[in-house]
Structures are given as C-alpha cells and as structure tokens.
Amino acid sequence: MGKRGRACVVVLGDLGRSPRMQYHALSLARQASFQVDIVAYGGSIPHEAVLKHPSIHVHTMAQPWFLQRFPKILYPLTLLLKAFIQFMMLLWFLFVKVPSPDLFLVQNPPSVPTLVAVKWASSWRRAAFVVDWHNFGYTLLALSLGRNNVFVSLYRWIEMCYGKMATGSLCVTKAMQHELEQNWGVRAKVLYDQPPEFFRPALLEERHELFCRVKKDLCHPSGVYDFISRELENQQLDETLFTIKTNADILLKQNRPALVVSSTSWTPDENFSILLEAAVMYDRRVAARLIGSDTAEISEEQDLYPNLLFIITGKGPEKEMYEEKIKRLNLKHVAFRTMWLAAEDYPLLLGSADLGVCLHTSSSGLDLPMKVVDMFGCGLPVCSVSYSCIQELVKDGQNGLLFSSSSELADQLLVLFKGFPGNCDALMSLRAGAMETSSSGRWATEWEDCAKPLITQVVEPLSFGVR
Fold first, then answer.
1. Using the 8-state DSSP alphabet, how is residue 427 labeled?
2. What confidence tens digit (pLDDT) does each residue in 164-201 have?
3. Bridge-based pairing state of the strands 249-252 and 243-246
C-alpha cells in the first residue's frame, strides 16, 4: 500500500498514555504492512507490543518543561511560547528526522500547533494527511480559559481551517461525525474504540501474581491507615487481599473486599468528587446497618455488604489535590489506592476487578471514554457518568449503569454489591452483558472494516502521482 510503504503517526502527547494511537501504529504495521514512525513525547512506557514490533520506530521529542516555571500571570504568554516551541520541534521531526511517508496520521487534540505542522509536512513530502478526531481541542482549552476567551476563538478557527484540509478523517462517535459534517464541513468515518486482544478476564494465577507484585503499593499510603493496611499486616507470603495459594491451587477468598477500578487523567473534565462523595455515602450506610443490627444480625449484615477497595490509576494535574481529600475521609468500610501501572499490568487489573467506574464527562460531549472500552474488553461492567452520547457505548442496565450524581452512584454500589461475592445477581447480570459487548468487536476487526479502506483510498492516488 503506497509507493513508500511508510506511515507516520503523530501524537503531541505522552505516547504511553495514548492507547488508541498505539493501536493505530500496530494495525498500520500488522494489517497494512507499513513501516511506521511514531513521533511523540516520552514519559510513560508504551505497550510492549509497540516497542518490540520490528516495523515500528518511535521518535521521542523533548518536552519544554522549563515553561512550567513561568508564573500563572504569564499564562497567555506561556501558551504562545509553548505552541511556538512545539511547532518548531514538530517541523524538525516531520521535515527532517522522519523518512518520507505515504501517510501522516495525527491525533487531535491537541490541534495547535499539531494540525498546522502536519499539514505543512504532508504538502512538502507529498503524503496523505489523516486526522483522527478524539475530541475538539478548543473545548479543552475552554475549560481553563472560558468559551469566550479570544485564544479559544482563535484556537477553534485554526482547528476548523486545518481540519478541513485533511485528506481524510476518522472520529470516535456518530455524534462527533454529525457535528463535523454539519458545522465544520468535515466528512469523517466513525472508528469506534475497541479493545485489543490483551484486554480479557484475568486467570486466577494472573490475578494472584498481579496482587503479589502490587502489594507494596497497597500497603500504607502516606498518612492513611485503613482496613487494607490492617489486613496486609497479618498476611502470609502466599496470600494477597483477594487470593490465597494452597499447595498448587490458587483460590479466591470468600471474605475478600470488592475491587472497584477507575482510570483517570485527573483533569477538570472528570469530577472525582462524585466518587469520593459516593464512597462516603456507601461507608455510612453500611456502618448504619451494622449499628442498627443486634448482635445476631451483625455478621449477616457484614456478609451482605462487602468492604470496597477503589484502585485509581492514572497521572494528571489534580491527583495530589484529591489524594489529600482522600486522607481526610476517615472511612471504615471503603479504602482508596492511587497508582500507575505498567502497560502490561493495566489489562490484568481490569480483568481482576469486580466493577469499573468512569467519571469522564467530555469537554465537547461528543467523545467516548476509551477506559470503558478497555473495561468491557475484560468483561468488566461499568458505572458511568451520564452525558449526551455515552449511550453509544454504555447500555444502561445491560453492560453497565449510568448515574448523574454521587447519591445515584452510592445507590448503585449498594445494589450491585449486595450479597457479594456469591449472591450478587445484579452485578453478575451486568458482567454477562459486558462479556457480550466484549465478544462483539475487537480493535483489529474494527480497524480493518473502517480505517483501512479510508487509508487505502487516500494513499493509493499518491502511488500514481495524483494529489
């Protein structure tokens, strides 16, 4: 495909935290037989499959960290300076360092200066220019500057103008496809996020090994001593919070806490306070049931509602603020742990969990959270914040539940975990729905059906010198 047999994937962000673009690179290499160059920032380690593929070559740009030292009063100037430095760096990589490709595939957002630099490079190197619309960049900028800010208006104008110049476009939802066509003059093909093959339910042995590896991360967060800390102090070497090894057999503990997982970028478009408030409500309601029960009923009530462990993965600007809030909660039946996992361990965590929680609300209301796709890939049901297009992914009452407030989420936790682990029918029903969703599609199939025809269409004319 193409006269050069080469594609360049551009991510103006941390490649390890851009799974969709990693999957694009793998599909371009595996399914389209391209040599693939990835131009991106470093930071988190990408998936092993990307690093080890002989046809994928990662080119890491240096981040302008020194700009973070500028005072907040100079924020508008910092934005301009950052965009200029990024623009010059992109030009260097795309015009000089990377071999000439048949195709540039760029993640949007960020839009400025990415779309400008990639458009210039594609014209100079006579390559196709494809934009993968994950969201609208101007809506993310508006979260910090406000919708009426002049920088936001300028950003939107650049995003629209250069978005129209693309040879082809992909997007993540039908709602975004409609918005692009009706109001931006861009015709995009919907490429739904789908989990790759390594997102699946974890085997018992894999769970046990994972929880052994992360035991140190679960022990004592600074300033916190809770039921998890107490239980870990008394464990044997062949025991974890959730599993126990007896001879050659690994068993799930009957008195284990329920494991709830949430992945977040700790940014303003995810209101983490909703989850904290729901956890407090769950904790108080379980405690009240125990206090209101006589001695004979207490053990039955304890069996009825489990302790909950929330593991929150991800990195981002608001993480420390929320960790301080967590320390002040003083919960008895709920515990929180925050951590960053290796790319190979994250699917195992999802495949070992009992429930996923998604707080993504979308700055545009038109994109879908990839974390939910990954959870469904592992057969994990999800409680998700409700917003305009989330029902393209989460089918309320089938593979997950939707909520609009912390009290709704608390109610859902009580309903789903009643009788855990053996008699929680509502949770098991949602898990069956999540497994059905998982079996209905995988990334390689979706890419073959939706992305590959578009890429073939925009690249083949270049093979004959047609632009």
1. H
2. 999 999 999 999 999 999 999 999 999 999 988 889 99
3. antiparallel
Position 218: which residue type?
L
Q: Using CA atoms in the order 429, 345, 48, 128, what is the torsion angle rounded to 10 degrees? A: 50
Please compute Rg for the chain using Cα positions: 24
Tokens for 410, please give them: 């608390």
State the pTM of this model. Answer: 0.83
Query: What 8-state DSSP symbol labels residue 120?
Result: H
Which residues pair with residue 260 across a beta bridge?
A: 310, 355
- Non-local (6+) Cβ contacts of 274 within 8 A are 359, 385, 405, 406, 409
Our CA angle for 117, 120, 125, nearest 5°, is 120
- Counting DSSP H helices and E strands in the chain, the numbers are 19, 15
3-state secondary structure of 299: helix
Side chain identity, residue 125: R
H-run or E-run covering 208: helix 204-213
Q: How many CB atoms lie within 10 A of CB 98?
A: 20
Cα 413 from chain centre: 22
- Which tens digit of pLDDT belongs to each residue from 404-457? 999 999 999 999 999 999 889 999 999 999 999 888 778 999 999 999 999 999
Pairing of strands 243-246, 189-190: unpaired
Q: Where on the phi/psi map is residue 110: left (φ > 0), alpha (ψ -120 to 50), or beta?
A: beta
| AA identity, residue 392 | E
Q: Cβ–Cβ contacts within 10 Å for residue 133, how many?
A: 30
- Counting Cα atoms < 13 Å in the Cβ hemisphere of 347 gives 18
